[in-house]
Amino acid sequence: TLNEVDQEFMKMLLEPNLESIIDVATKQCRQVITVDTNALVISCFRFLEALLHPVDRNLRANERALQTELLQTAEGKLTVELRMKRVVIFALVWTFGAAVESESRLRLDTELRRIWPDAMPEAPPVPTTAKESKAMVGQVVDYSSK
Question: Alpha-carbon Rg of the chain, whole angstroms?
Fold first, then answer.
């Protein structure tokens, strides 16, 4: 379970943006398989919960202490926010992006870059085929990069 600060941050990230992400994924992208929108949203939130759930209580306690320490400086706060954004993007990509055809993933990638440009890796050149694509659905979360 997220603490109140993390819950508010997640709400701030998702509340104004989820509708446009759903619109892109369900109306502007071709789906590989038809998936109910509510099921996608639920899957995304369950995935987020799994990503943010403590695996080891001591590890989570240490991580929380580190985040509390980082939040005390302006630069550290950015780092924590950036990490949280990347986790949200990862969950969105692997739930909403998993249900769409590879060519459509570029459209979802474009929307996520529009919403959170500071949390996305540098955009690769536009590929001519889906195989050449380096859209977010083919990426991994890198907590160490800025």
Answer: 16
Mean confidence (pLDDT) of the chain:
76
Residue 129, pLDDT above cutoff 70: no
> Could you count the other beta carbons within 10 Å of the beta carbon of residue 42?
12
Query: Could you tell me where the beta strands, DSSP code E, fall in 2-113?
Result: none
Q: What is the pLDDT of residues 11-64, one digit of tens each?
A: 888 999 999 999 999 999 998 888 899 999 999 999 988 888 765 444 555 555
**Cβ proximity of 21 and 93 under 8 Å:** no
Structure tokens belonging to residue 104: 């459509």
Length of the chain: 146
Instruction: Name, in order, each residue with C-beta under 8 angstroms of 76's C-beta and a sequence gap of 6 or more.
Output: 69, 70
pLDDT score recorded for residue 138: 54
Report residue 23 as tokens: 């619109």
Query: DSSP code of 143?
Result: T
pLDDT reported for residue 125: 56
Task: Name the residue type at position 106.
Answer: L
Which tokens belong to 123? 């955009």
User: 55: Cβ–Cβ under 8 A, 6 or more apart, which residues?
Assistant: none
First to last CA, the chain: 26
